[in-house]
Amino acid sequence: MTSYSNQTSSAARFTSFLRNYYIYFVLVAVVVLLSTANLDQFALFERGNFLYKRNIINILRVSAPLLVMAGAFTLLMVSGYIDLSVGSAMSLSAVVYAMLAINGVPFIPAFALTVLVGVLLGAVNGFLVVRLNITPVIATLITLSLFKGVALLLVQDGVSAIKSGNFLKIPGWFNDYGRAKVLFDLPAAFWVAVAVTLALIVVQNRGKLGKYAAATGGNPTAAKLSGINTGRTVFLLYVIVGASAALAGIARSSFMSLGDPLSGDGMELTAILVVLLGGTAFSGGEGKVLRSFVGALIIMMLTVGMLTIVPAYYQTLVIGSALLAAAASNHLVSRKGKES
Amino acid sequence: MSSLTENIPQSLQREKMSDEGFITSLVVIVAVALFLLASLLVPNFFQWQNVVNLVTNNWAVISLGIFVSFLLVSGNFDLSVGGIVALSGVLSVWFAQSPDGANALSSGLGMPYPLAILCALIGALAIGAMNALFVVRLGIPSIIVTLGTMMVARGIAQVITQGSQRNTNLPDEFGFLGNLTMFGTSVKLPVVLMLLLFLVAVFVERKMVFGRITYWIGANPEAATLSGINRSWHITKLYLFSAAVAGMVGILLASEFKSGFSNRGTLMEFDALVIALLGGIAITGGFGSVIGMFFGAIILAVVTSAATGMVLSPDWQFILKAIAVFLAIVTQTWAVARRNR
């Protein structure tokens, strides 16, 4: 689609280049900035060097929940839809996973069941949006409240989260998934995120689903008229987002060693921020999974890096400003591309 | 069509009620029905004082809901109001605190209270102007913009209060406005302001050009522009009014509790949206009424207070909200479709 118009002028080619690759420049800029900033006096960045191995590993394993969601969320936004319930779905999955584990279910069944729960949550969203035709924002706002409520109800009164108590203990294997070193000193959760992202990149570039998603987001009517079952595409995307939210919940609860019903709060905003930062148009139709993955890395580096420079109470302000800035720059770049 | 008209009584047949009036009356009927149902199920629910409480306890959300509803009618979201409530409250405290406090959190700028309120309102308006700038000038979807400005507003409040609250070293008159009781009853000034605002909003919405333009814009933005309506300026005004009301709510809440708390108003933006949706305001724009919003708030209040009365855990409120909005949207869509079949 874009390749036609981009051959017309060098200015247009430059805009397109900027749109496709700016995220990598931002990544390099952030790494350089954080590496050169003098962080000697802070404990988290050892020896004041951002590029120190343990620091990088720490950031990557904390990022696992966001990384695993970024790809699926991108595909959903490419199709022109949105899911505000991912944070709640993540919390609910974290609680379910911890409950299964604490009641003696072994790792693999607990993992599979939790992903199944995520699939169900995604299906609920898909049902509301596709079958009942409720506006995506409203439908997922309803499920945001619903999933959060269920997560809070699952945790006993008077306790803030599912954790080891007097009678039930969280088993020893519980935080292996989020912490134990598997490959290059990184935990399984991180590699699952990478695998999911790779799979979604293949889906986007080679698979029917990727093409259908872009077609649905670009022009729903045209997509329908050319025989694409847009309803089924969107439903499937919601299910994938639900499953990835469950993976994120598992990663988070494994890393924290507890099932916290509030652990995913605000995650929907971070996910939107990451996808917008990756240059996905919110009107749908374009966007790349890999770029959102890089966007997620940038956001995690900034938030973790920022904690060492300024107090934690600056976080909301910075994330909010970043969201506005990403939305504005994203919009300006994509508008320039269309005008040319 | 013919089978439908047979069932409608004579009085309605002459001038068919609009869909909007139909949905709004439906909301009112549901609110009353739910109240009666709750009275049967919950002991001591059926009391005049309880009716008063249902309204007075929700003055903040209803006030916010007024312009959230106007914006929804015009086809735009405003999710920044909760953040503005926190920001203006914190600002009013910070401006009014005397500068000689013992530590950073107890010393402010030492302005006289009226000036502090004014400056806090200007701060709230700045967020509203930011909403308008991004939504109107840059054409970015309002849901993303207002979520961003909500975080920015709350973020500034958190920075000023260092993540907690400011409540010391305040002048005596600071707690006056929020706790002023009116007409010799226990009804406080904020509630009276909310009711006044609501009545004005109903009048503006029904009878004034400003209100009708809002509906035109929501129903068909392009037709509105082509018929000479300055759409950008109108939406800008709506965002500014919404921010001003949210600022007022924040200042009154800060005054009521004599503190500026950076987490005050959390989730209020969602509640304001929820009551507007419960009240039958359609997100597609151009449809709905503040009257519906008001009774939407009553529905939510009845449901949550009845649930508490029936000794459900407070965690149930999220699920109840979800179910209420879901049912409201599904039945309203169904009712309008069936009516116009």
UniProtKB/TrEMBL annotation, chain A:
<feature type="transmembrane region" description="Helical">
    <location>
        <begin position="267"/>
        <end position="285"/>
    </location>
</feature>
<feature type="transmembrane region" description="Helical">
    <location>
        <begin position="292"/>
        <end position="310"/>
    </location>
</feature>
<feature type="transmembrane region" description="Helical">
    <location>
        <begin position="182"/>
        <end position="203"/>
    </location>
</feature>
<feature type="transmembrane region" description="Helical">
    <location>
        <begin position="234"/>
        <end position="255"/>
    </location>
</feature>
<keyword id="KW-0997">Cell inner membrane</keyword>
<dbReference type="GO" id="GO:0005886">
    <property type="term" value="C:plasma membrane"/>
</dbReference>
<protein>
    <submittedName>
        <fullName>D-allose transport system permease protein AlsC</fullName>
    </submittedName>
</protein>
<keyword id="KW-0812">Transmembrane</keyword>
<dbReference type="GO" id="GO:0022857">
    <property type="term" value="F:transmembrane transporter activity"/>
</dbReference>
<dbReference type="Pfam" id="PF02653">
    <property type="entry name" value="BPD_transp_2"/>
</dbReference>
<dbReference type="InterPro" id="IPR001851">
    <property type="entry name" value="ABC_transp_permease"/>
</dbReference>
<keyword id="KW-0472">Membrane</keyword>
<keyword id="KW-1133">Transmembrane helix</keyword>
<keyword id="KW-1003">Cell membrane</keyword>
<feature type="transmembrane region" description="Helical">
    <location>
        <begin position="137"/>
        <end position="162"/>
    </location>
</feature>
<feature type="transmembrane region" description="Helical">
    <location>
        <begin position="21"/>
        <end position="39"/>
    </location>
</feature>
<feature type="transmembrane region" description="Helical">
    <location>
        <begin position="59"/>
        <end position="77"/>
    </location>
</feature>
<feature type="transmembrane region" description="Helical">
    <location>
        <begin position="108"/>
        <end position="130"/>
    </location>
</feature>
<keyword id="KW-0813">Transport</keyword>
From TrEMBL, chain B:
<feature type="transmembrane region" description="Helical">
    <location>
        <begin position="238"/>
        <end position="255"/>
    </location>
</feature>
<dbReference type="InterPro" id="IPR001851">
    <property type="entry name" value="ABC_transp_permease"/>
</dbReference>
<dbReference type="Pfam" id="PF02653">
    <property type="entry name" value="BPD_transp_2"/>
</dbReference>
<keyword id="KW-0812">Transmembrane</keyword>
<dbReference type="GO" id="GO:0005886">
    <property type="term" value="C:plasma membrane"/>
</dbReference>
<feature type="transmembrane region" description="Helical">
    <location>
        <begin position="79"/>
        <end position="95"/>
    </location>
</feature>
<protein>
    <submittedName>
        <fullName>Inner membrane ABC transporter permease protein YjfF</fullName>
    </submittedName>
</protein>
<keyword id="KW-1133">Transmembrane helix</keyword>
<feature type="transmembrane region" description="Helical">
    <location>
        <begin position="143"/>
        <end position="160"/>
    </location>
</feature>
<keyword id="KW-1003">Cell membrane</keyword>
<feature type="transmembrane region" description="Helical">
    <location>
        <begin position="180"/>
        <end position="204"/>
    </location>
</feature>
<feature type="transmembrane region" description="Helical">
    <location>
        <begin position="115"/>
        <end position="136"/>
    </location>
</feature>
<feature type="transmembrane region" description="Helical">
    <location>
        <begin position="267"/>
        <end position="287"/>
    </location>
</feature>
<keyword id="KW-0472">Membrane</keyword>
<feature type="transmembrane region" description="Helical">
    <location>
        <begin position="21"/>
        <end position="42"/>
    </location>
</feature>
<feature type="transmembrane region" description="Helical">
    <location>
        <begin position="294"/>
        <end position="312"/>
    </location>
</feature>
<dbReference type="GO" id="GO:0022857">
    <property type="term" value="F:transmembrane transporter activity"/>
</dbReference>
<feature type="transmembrane region" description="Helical">
    <location>
        <begin position="318"/>
        <end position="337"/>
    </location>
</feature>
<feature type="transmembrane region" description="Helical">
    <location>
        <begin position="54"/>
        <end position="72"/>
    </location>
</feature>
